[in-house]
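Title: Prediction job returns without error message
Component: structure pipeline
Severity: low
Priority: P3
Assignee: unassigned

Description:
Job completed but the reporter wants confirmation the result is attached to the right record. Sequence as submitted:
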Amino acid sequence: MVVLNKIYTRTGDQGETALGNGARVPKYSPRVAAYGTTDEANATVGLARLHATGAMDGQLAMIQNDLFDLGADLCRPDMDQDATAEYPPLRMIATQVDRLEAEIDAMNAALTPLRSFILPGGSALAAHLHLCRTVSRRAERLCVELATVEQVNPAAIKYLNRLSDWFFVAARIANNGGKDDVLWVPGATR
């Protein structure tokens, strides 16, 4: 259970922060950048939800919860010690990735295949979902980079990869089932 009695602690005033295992690292560390960008992605989902209703809002709420799980996963670098940890860390699992894939497949079945790249925009919800897509792609890149120097749960990277795809397809759904997508016209402004 998380208890937040005091919001500021002053423990980060010297440019360090604590990971979930208690280790202190610089705030610019690759791990902090990865889970911080995951938090940023979560905030963009909150903005998108201002324009979402029904099933889409429910799916976005689940994604927000997943992104908190992902942040909890990334802030615990001690994957080799998971079984012996006093408080076992929360890890992303394959079923979270599978759920995204099933939702992508269901949404995509209702869409006409693309014959052009699309520009981010259209409806307010679609524009926000495209922002979610780009921030989650950045979080994925940072996690992949982190994995070159430290252990990262492979399911976390898979989740972020599917998530950006989810946002792309959901943006098309939000654009009247793709009918209001803004198509890229190569060279149109020359």
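Comment from assignee: result matches the submitted record. The CA atoms of residues 175 and 181 lie 6 Å apart.
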